[in-house]
């Protein structure tokens, strides 16, 4: 097999956001079922960590704008899952 093999998991940014929202909800459902809670600070810190990991440690910067965009979107998804779990706890009060 010669040449490059490309695999596109997402059709568009919108498609990525829709799928990641579903994953975030499932994550928050599982955490809530275990009695876990989240803070917005956890969401921020984990999102920043996700960005640093993808963009710097995994060399996403080598992929140019696409690498930056993927790191930002991944960080956003990470924040959303923590925010979802945090929001559920806020509605109890």
From TrEMBL:
It comes from the Bacteria. GO terms for molecular function: transferase activity. Its EC number is 2.-.-.-. It is an enzyme of class 2 (transferase). Keywords: Transferase. This is UDP-glucose--Lipooligosaccharide beta 1-4 glucosyltransferase.
């Amino acid at each position: 097999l010669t040449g490059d093999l490309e695999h596109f998991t997402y059709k568009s940014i919108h498609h990525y956001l829709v799928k990641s929202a579903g994953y975030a909800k499932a994550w928050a459902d599982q955490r809530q079922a275990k009695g876990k809670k989240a803070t917005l600070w956890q969401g921020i810190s984990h999102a920043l960590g996700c960005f640093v990991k993808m963009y710097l440690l995994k060399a996403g910067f080598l992929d140019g704008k696409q690498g930056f965009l993927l790191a930002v979107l991944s960080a956003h998804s990470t924040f959303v899952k923590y925010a979802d779990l945090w929001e559920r706890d806020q509605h109890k009060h």
